[in-house]
Amino acid sequence: MISIENVHRHYGKKSILNGVTLQIQDGEIFGLLGPNGAGKSTLLSILTTVMKPSEGQVYMNGFDVTKQHKQIRQMIGYVPQDIALWEELTVKENIRLWSKFIKTKIPKERMIQVCEEVNLHNKWHEKVSQLSGGMKRKLNIAVALLHDPDILLMDEPTVGIDIQSKLEINEYMKVLAKQGKTIVYTTHDMSEIKGLCSRIGVLKKGKLTFIGTIETAKASINNQLNKPIINEEEIIFHLLKD
Ligand SMILES: Nc1ncnc2c1ncn2[C@@H]1O[C@H](COP(=O)(O)OP(=O)(O)OP(=O)(O)O)[C@@H](O)[C@H]1O
After folding, report:
1. How would residue 180 be classed by pLDDT, with cut points 50, 70 and 90?
2. Pocket lining: 18 vs ligand 1, CB cutoff 6 Å
3. Is 38 touching ligand 1 by the criterion CB < 6 Å?
Protein backbone atom coordinates (compact mmCIF):
# COMPACT_ATOMS: atom_id res chain seq x y z
CA MET A 1 0.00 0.00 0.00
CA ILE A 2 1.08 3.58 -0.71
CA SER A 3 0.25 6.03 2.02
CA ILE A 4 0.76 9.75 1.36
CA GLU A 5 0.10 11.91 4.39
CA ASN A 6 -0.24 15.69 4.25
CA VAL A 7 2.62 16.15 1.78
CA HIS A 8 3.84 19.65 0.97
CA ARG A 9 6.62 20.59 -1.42
CA HIS A 10 8.01 24.05 -2.06
CA TYR A 11 10.58 25.32 -4.56
CA GLY A 12 11.96 28.37 -2.80
CA LYS A 13 8.87 30.37 -1.91
CA LYS A 14 6.74 28.66 -4.57
CA SER A 15 4.33 26.07 -3.20
CA ILE A 16 3.95 23.09 -5.58
CA LEU A 17 2.22 20.46 -3.40
CA ASN A 18 -0.09 21.72 -0.73
CA GLY A 19 -1.22 19.06 1.76
CA VAL A 20 -1.69 15.98 -0.42
CA THR A 21 -3.17 12.99 1.42
CA LEU A 22 -3.92 9.78 -0.44
CA GLN A 23 -3.95 6.01 0.09
CA ILE A 24 -3.48 3.63 -2.84
CA GLN A 25 -4.21 -0.06 -2.31
CA ASP A 26 -2.24 -3.06 -3.64
CA GLY A 27 -3.26 -4.05 -7.17
CA GLU A 28 -4.89 -0.69 -7.92
CA ILE A 29 -4.38 1.22 -11.15
CA PHE A 30 -4.56 4.79 -9.93
CA GLY A 31 -4.76 7.60 -12.49
CA LEU A 32 -3.36 10.95 -11.46
CA LEU A 33 -4.87 13.76 -13.51
CA GLY A 34 -4.23 17.46 -13.50
CA PRO A 35 -3.53 20.45 -15.69
CA ASN A 36 0.05 21.22 -16.75
CA GLY A 37 2.12 22.36 -13.80
CA ALA A 38 -0.31 20.96 -11.20
CA GLY A 39 2.47 19.01 -9.45
CA LYS A 40 1.91 15.47 -10.80
CA SER A 41 5.55 14.82 -11.72
CA THR A 42 6.68 16.37 -8.44
CA LEU A 43 4.47 13.93 -6.50
CA LEU A 44 5.84 10.99 -8.55
CA SER A 45 9.41 12.21 -7.91
CA ILE A 46 8.70 12.10 -4.17
CA LEU A 47 7.39 8.53 -4.50
CA THR A 48 10.59 7.55 -6.34
CA THR A 49 12.74 9.02 -3.49
CA VAL A 50 14.42 11.40 -5.97
CA MET A 51 12.81 14.37 -4.23
CA LYS A 52 11.99 14.88 -0.56
CA PRO A 53 8.72 16.36 0.65
CA SER A 54 9.15 19.70 2.44
CA GLU A 55 6.57 18.42 4.97
CA GLY A 56 4.51 15.28 5.45
CA GLN A 57 5.16 11.52 5.23
CA VAL A 58 5.05 8.91 2.51
CA TYR A 59 5.15 5.17 3.21
CA MET A 60 5.23 2.35 0.71
CA ASN A 61 4.44 -1.08 2.12
CA GLY A 62 5.33 0.44 5.49
CA PHE A 63 8.75 1.83 4.41
CA ASP A 64 9.45 5.55 4.71
CA VAL A 65 10.44 7.15 1.36
CA THR A 66 12.63 9.76 3.06
CA LYS A 67 14.61 7.30 5.19
CA GLN A 68 14.53 3.86 3.57
CA HIS A 69 15.68 4.58 0.02
CA LYS A 70 17.20 1.15 -0.54
CA GLN A 71 14.03 -0.79 0.30
CA ILE A 72 11.83 1.69 -1.61
CA ARG A 73 13.98 1.53 -4.75
CA GLN A 74 13.79 -2.25 -4.72
CA MET A 75 10.01 -2.18 -4.64
CA ILE A 76 9.38 0.48 -7.29
CA GLY A 77 9.81 0.69 -11.05
CA TYR A 78 9.74 4.14 -12.63
CA VAL A 79 8.79 5.03 -16.20
CA PRO A 80 9.82 8.65 -16.81
CA GLN A 81 7.94 11.09 -19.04
CA ASP A 82 10.92 11.31 -21.40
CA ILE A 83 12.25 8.17 -23.04
CA ALA A 84 15.40 7.09 -21.20
CA LEU A 85 17.18 4.83 -23.70
CA TRP A 86 20.44 4.75 -25.65
CA GLU A 87 19.36 5.26 -29.27
CA GLU A 88 22.49 3.80 -30.86
CA LEU A 89 22.38 0.59 -28.81
CA THR A 90 20.14 -2.41 -29.52
CA VAL A 91 17.15 -3.48 -27.43
CA LYS A 92 19.27 -6.22 -25.86
CA GLU A 93 22.15 -3.81 -25.09
CA ASN A 94 19.76 -1.29 -23.54
CA ILE A 95 18.21 -3.94 -21.31
CA ARG A 96 21.63 -5.27 -20.28
CA LEU A 97 22.93 -1.80 -19.53
CA TRP A 98 19.88 -0.85 -17.48
CA SER A 99 20.11 -4.12 -15.54
CA LYS A 100 23.63 -3.09 -14.43
CA PHE A 101 22.13 -0.10 -12.59
CA ILE A 102 19.94 -2.40 -10.52
CA LYS A 103 21.49 -3.63 -7.31
CA THR A 104 20.17 -7.19 -7.61
CA LYS A 105 21.48 -9.39 -10.44
CA ILE A 106 18.98 -9.79 -13.28
CA PRO A 107 19.15 -13.22 -14.99
CA LYS A 108 19.15 -13.27 -18.81
CA GLU A 109 15.85 -15.21 -18.76
CA ARG A 110 14.19 -12.31 -16.94
CA MET A 111 15.55 -9.82 -19.54
CA ILE A 112 14.02 -11.91 -22.33
CA GLN A 113 10.77 -12.37 -20.40
CA VAL A 114 10.10 -8.63 -19.92
CA CYS A 115 10.91 -8.09 -23.58
CA GLU A 116 8.39 -10.78 -24.55
CA GLU A 117 5.73 -9.34 -22.24
CA VAL A 118 5.83 -6.03 -24.13
CA ASN A 119 6.00 -7.77 -27.53
CA LEU A 120 9.53 -6.64 -28.35
CA HIS A 121 11.30 -10.03 -28.40
CA ASN A 122 11.49 -9.93 -32.21
CA LYS A 123 13.34 -6.58 -31.92
CA TRP A 124 16.04 -7.96 -29.58
CA HIS A 125 18.91 -7.12 -31.98
CA GLU A 126 17.48 -3.90 -33.40
CA LYS A 127 18.85 -0.48 -32.59
CA VAL A 128 16.50 1.69 -30.52
CA SER A 129 16.83 4.43 -33.17
CA GLN A 130 15.00 2.06 -35.56
CA LEU A 131 12.01 1.57 -33.23
CA SER A 132 8.72 3.48 -33.39
CA GLY A 133 7.76 5.86 -30.56
CA GLY A 134 5.33 3.24 -29.19
CA MET A 135 8.02 0.53 -29.15
CA LYS A 136 10.42 2.86 -27.33
CA ARG A 137 7.74 3.49 -24.69
CA LYS A 138 7.22 -0.26 -24.29
CA LEU A 139 10.97 -0.78 -23.90
CA ASN A 140 11.05 1.96 -21.25
CA ILE A 141 8.34 0.05 -19.37
CA ALA A 142 10.17 -3.28 -19.77
CA VAL A 143 13.32 -1.75 -18.30
CA ALA A 144 11.37 -0.42 -15.29
CA LEU A 145 10.05 -3.95 -14.64
CA LEU A 146 13.37 -5.82 -14.83
CA HIS A 147 13.68 -6.28 -11.05
CA ASP A 148 9.98 -7.29 -10.76
CA PRO A 149 8.92 -4.37 -8.55
CA ASP A 150 5.63 -4.37 -6.57
CA ILE A 151 4.86 -0.77 -7.53
CA LEU A 152 5.05 0.81 -10.98
CA LEU A 153 5.12 4.62 -11.25
CA MET A 154 4.53 5.94 -14.75
CA ASP A 155 4.66 9.54 -15.93
CA GLU A 156 2.37 9.87 -18.99
CA PRO A 157 3.36 6.45 -20.40
CA THR A 158 1.09 6.63 -23.44
CA VAL A 159 1.38 10.26 -24.51
CA GLY A 160 2.02 10.87 -28.19
CA ILE A 161 2.13 7.25 -29.38
CA ASP A 162 0.17 5.21 -31.92
CA ILE A 163 -3.17 3.77 -30.85
CA GLN A 164 -2.05 0.12 -31.19
CA SER A 165 0.89 0.59 -28.79
CA LYS A 166 -1.33 2.56 -26.42
CA LEU A 167 -3.87 -0.27 -26.28
CA GLU A 168 -1.09 -2.84 -25.81
CA ILE A 169 0.36 -0.82 -22.93
CA ASN A 170 -3.10 -0.44 -21.34
CA GLU A 171 -3.73 -4.19 -21.61
CA TYR A 172 -0.32 -4.91 -20.12
CA MET A 173 -1.05 -2.56 -17.20
CA LYS A 174 -4.21 -4.57 -16.50
CA VAL A 175 -2.21 -7.83 -16.53
CA LEU A 176 0.34 -6.35 -14.11
CA ALA A 177 -2.44 -5.15 -11.77
CA LYS A 178 -4.00 -8.63 -11.83
CA GLN A 179 -0.62 -10.00 -10.74
CA GLY A 180 -0.95 -7.72 -7.70
CA LYS A 181 1.25 -4.84 -8.82
CA THR A 182 0.17 -1.34 -7.85
CA ILE A 183 0.29 1.17 -10.69
CA VAL A 184 0.24 4.93 -10.34
CA TYR A 185 0.30 6.85 -13.58
CA THR A 186 -0.23 10.38 -14.75
CA THR A 187 -2.32 11.10 -17.81
CA HIS A 188 -4.54 13.59 -19.57
CA ASP A 189 -6.38 10.92 -21.53
CA MET A 190 -9.93 10.32 -20.27
CA SER A 191 -10.72 7.63 -22.83
CA GLU A 192 -8.01 5.33 -21.43
CA ILE A 193 -8.74 6.17 -17.80
CA LYS A 194 -12.29 4.91 -18.14
CA GLY A 195 -11.39 1.33 -18.99
CA LEU A 196 -8.25 1.17 -16.92
CA CYS A 197 -8.24 2.97 -13.58
CA SER A 198 -9.88 1.66 -10.45
CA ARG A 199 -9.77 5.24 -9.10
CA ILE A 200 -8.53 8.64 -10.12
CA GLY A 201 -7.15 11.61 -8.26
CA VAL A 202 -7.35 15.15 -9.60
CA LEU A 203 -4.48 17.43 -8.65
CA LYS A 204 -4.98 21.16 -9.12
CA LYS A 205 -2.47 23.79 -7.97
CA GLY A 206 -0.91 21.22 -5.66
CA LYS A 207 -4.16 20.09 -4.01
CA LEU A 208 -6.14 16.92 -4.57
CA THR A 209 -9.60 18.18 -5.44
CA PHE A 210 -11.14 14.78 -6.20
CA ILE A 211 -10.37 11.15 -5.29
CA GLY A 212 -12.69 8.36 -6.39
CA THR A 213 -14.04 6.32 -9.27
CA ILE A 214 -15.08 7.71 -12.65
CA GLU A 215 -18.69 6.86 -11.78
CA THR A 216 -18.48 8.91 -8.58
CA ALA A 217 -16.94 11.82 -10.51
CA LYS A 218 -19.71 11.65 -13.08
CA ALA A 219 -22.44 11.49 -10.44
CA SER A 220 -20.99 14.41 -8.50
CA ILE A 221 -20.70 16.59 -11.64
CA ASN A 222 -24.22 15.65 -12.74
CA ASN A 223 -25.40 16.67 -9.32
CA GLN A 224 -23.64 20.05 -9.47
CA LEU A 225 -24.79 20.83 -13.00
CA ASN A 226 -28.25 19.38 -12.63
CA LYS A 227 -28.03 17.94 -16.15
CA PRO A 228 -26.57 14.62 -17.34
CA ILE A 229 -23.04 14.53 -18.72
CA ILE A 230 -22.84 12.88 -22.09
CA ASN A 231 -19.21 11.95 -22.69
CA GLU A 232 -15.84 11.44 -21.00
CA GLU A 233 -14.37 14.67 -22.38
CA GLU A 234 -17.02 16.57 -20.46
CA ILE A 235 -16.13 14.79 -17.23
CA ILE A 236 -12.46 15.69 -17.62
CA PHE A 237 -13.35 19.26 -18.57
CA HIS A 238 -15.37 19.70 -15.37
CA LEU A 239 -12.83 17.91 -13.18
CA LEU A 240 -9.92 20.03 -14.43
CA LYS A 241 -11.54 23.44 -14.79
CA ASP A 242 -10.76 26.18 -12.22
N1 LIG B 1 13.32 22.14 -10.09
C2 LIG B 1 12.32 23.02 -10.07
N3 LIG B 1 12.50 24.27 -9.58
C4 LIG B 1 11.47 25.16 -9.52
N5 LIG B 1 10.22 24.90 -9.96
C6 LIG B 1 10.00 23.68 -10.46
C7 LIG B 1 11.02 22.66 -10.55
N8 LIG B 1 10.47 21.53 -11.09
C9 LIG B 1 9.17 21.84 -11.33
N10 LIG B 1 8.90 23.10 -10.97
C11 LIG B 1 7.59 23.78 -11.05
O12 LIG B 1 6.68 23.03 -10.28
C13 LIG B 1 5.39 23.07 -10.87
C14 LIG B 1 4.84 21.66 -10.99
O15 LIG B 1 5.60 20.94 -11.94
P16 LIG B 1 5.28 19.42 -12.30
O17 LIG B 1 6.26 19.03 -13.38
O18 LIG B 1 5.28 18.62 -11.05
O19 LIG B 1 3.81 19.53 -12.88
P20 LIG B 1 2.98 18.47 -13.74
O21 LIG B 1 1.62 18.44 -13.16
O22 LIG B 1 3.73 17.19 -13.82
O23 LIG B 1 2.95 19.17 -15.18
P24 LIG B 1 2.95 18.51 -16.67
O25 LIG B 1 1.59 17.90 -16.87
O26 LIG B 1 3.19 19.71 -17.53
O27 LIG B 1 4.07 17.51 -16.71
C28 LIG B 1 5.52 23.80 -12.20
O29 LIG B 1 5.11 25.14 -12.03
C30 LIG B 1 7.01 23.76 -12.46
O31 LIG B 1 7.44 24.88 -13.18
Report:
1. very high
2. no
3. yes
